[in-house]
Amino acid sequence: MPKKGDVIDHAWKPLTKQPLPAGRPRSWYIAHNRRLKAMRLAIALLDAGTFSPDLATNEKIRRTADAVGVHWPSDATCRMVRRMMQAQR
Predict the structure, then answer these.
(1) Rounded to the nearest 5 degrees, what angle is found at the Cα of 10, between the Cα atoms of 5 and 16?
(2) Cα angle 86, 13, 11; round to 5
């Protein structure tokens, strides 16, 4: 885990994994991991120059997932990536 002020070279690479909190329902863990994957893919797409969710097709998101080393995203994850790119900043 980087300390405050440390520079992160590659935002799309996951940081050191921390254990998730115990005692949550399985659906929470599935949704949490899907959000993390979508966030990684959205960051990678933005770094690659895809700034509009309209340009982020399922095929482009899946090609990016292959390039980044993330498992093949489902249609639901692709929709989540587009929603994250569309969100107000």
Answers:
(1) 75
(2) 50
Based on its alpha-carbon atoms, the radius of gyration of the chain, rounded to whole angstroms, reads 14
Please enumerate in sequence order all residues whose Cβ is within 8 A of that of 48, keeping only pairs 6 or more positions apart, or say none. Answer: 64
In contact, 85 and 53? CB cutoff 8 Å = yes
Element (H, E) at 12: none
The pLDDT tens digits of the residues spanning 37-64 come to 999 999 999 999 999 999 999 999 999 9
Question: SS3 for 38?
Answer: helix
pTM, to two decimals: 0.76
Contact 12, 44 (CB under 8 A): yes
